[in-house]
Amino acid sequence: MRFKLIAAAALALLAGCATPPPPAPGSAASKVVVMNKFNNVAIGAMRVARENGFLTVKVALNNTSHTNMTMYYRFVWLGDDGFPVADEESWKTLNLYAAQATFLPAIAPVPKATDFRLEVKTP
C-alpha cells in the first residue's frame, strides 16, 4: 500500500513537470522569443499592419508586479522565407512602472519585411 502511495505521488510530480505544447504557428506567442529570463511582464495582443509599404507592429505589455522594472527587447525582421532581411538590431531598454500597461511600437527598417520575431529578456 505504501509503495502505491509513493508511486502515485511520484507520477503526479512528473505530470506537473510536463513541457507545455509549442505555440500555434502564426499566433502572438509564436512571435516572442524569451532570451535568458523574462519575469513579471505579460505580453498581450499584437497588432500588425502595413503602412506606406513598411510592416508596423504594436505589442501590448503589462507589468504584473507591484514594483518598477526594466526589460530589454529587440525586433528581428523576417522575409517570406523566414530569414532576417535587415541588420540585427541592438537591445533596447524599456522601463515599466508598477502594474503599468503600455504598447511597444515598431516599424520595419526595410519594405521587404513580411514578418517579425520579438526577442525579450529581463535583467
Q: What distinguishing features does this structure have?
A:
1 helix; Immunoglobulin-like; YcfL-like_sf; 3-stranded antiparallel beta sheet; mainly beta; signal; DUF1425; 4-stranded mixed beta sheet; 12% helix; 123 residues; DUF1425 domain-containing protein
Q: Write down the domain tally.
A: 1
CATH topology: Immunoglobulin-like
| Overall spatial form | elongated
Average pLDDT reading? 85
- CATH architecture call: Sandwich
Distance between the termini: 48 Å
Radius of gyration equals: 19 Å
| H-E string | HEEEEEEE
* Oligomer designation: single chain
Helix content: 10-25%
Strand order of the largest sheet: 1-7-4-5
The description of the largest β-sheet is: 4 strands, mixed
Instruction: Tally the helices.
Output: 1
User: Which spans of ≥5 residues are poorly predicted at pLDDT below 50?
Assistant: none
Strand content: 35-45%
Structural class: mainly beta
Total strand segments: 7
CATH class: Mainly Beta
Can you describe this structure?
It is elongated, with a radius of gyration of 19 Å. 12% of the residues lie in helices and 43% in strands. β2 and β3 (54-63) form a beta hairpin. The model has no long low-confidence stretch (mean pLDDT 85). It contains one helix and seven strands. The protein has one helix at residues 2-16, and strands spanning 32-34, 41-51, 54-63, 69-78, 92-96, 101-107, 115-121. By secondary structure, it is mainly beta. It has a single domain (23-121), classed as Immunoglobulin-like (Sandwich). It has a four-stranded mixed beta sheet, with no helix packed on it. The chain has a three-stranded antiparallel beta sheet with strand order 2-3-6, with no helix packed on it.
